[in-house]
Fold this protein.
Amino acid sequence: EVQLVESGGGLVQPGGSLRLSCAASGFTFSSFPMSWVRQAPGKGLEWVSVISASGGSTYYADSVKGRFTISRDNSKNTVSLQMNSLKAEDTAVYYCAIGNVQPDDNWFDPWGQGTLVTVSS
Amino acid sequence: QSALTQPPSASGSPGQSVTISCTGTSSDVGGYNYVSWYQQHPGKAPKLMIYEVSKRPSGVPDRFSGSKSGNTASLIVSGLQSEDEADYYCSSYAGSNVVVFGGGTKLTVL
């Protein structure tokens, strides 16, 4: 059974940093691109970032470009999201999911249970 | 990277059919045959229901179907059941390695 378990969320002050991790199991992790999608409290979904299966390609939403960095360790079956210069509007539940952002491959399935990031002073 | 437009709410009685629309532009929905739909129950993670406009992943009931015409995609839920009550989100490829989501539709089973 595919499992994705996020961790690392919490309360951080504006301007601060946080690193999220997603531990994957139940599938050949190194064969799949991985994405992060977030959901602000009571709001809709927003795609954040994607990393290719090898880790050689990464893409970001304009809202996080230059502040967030996605990475993966295929030896440990983990994908991470380093979040710097955090703003109040980054407050959200962050989900990791198997999925790509390519013209012919752009859906997310399955998703982890999410981890809450709160940016507040 | 503007969000796709969905109605905030939709409803139907058990056994009825309901259609949820998702409107974009020629740069996203209208430009690619890659619209997906997700179901999200309160406090739970989203679940993929439809991909590539009309394909169902294994395990998704055939009561769920998808279509697209021009810049508008639709999710059709037929034979409504109480467990279908949830939030539904559409998404589309929008070029330049970007995916955009709709604002979500709350489906109520009366």
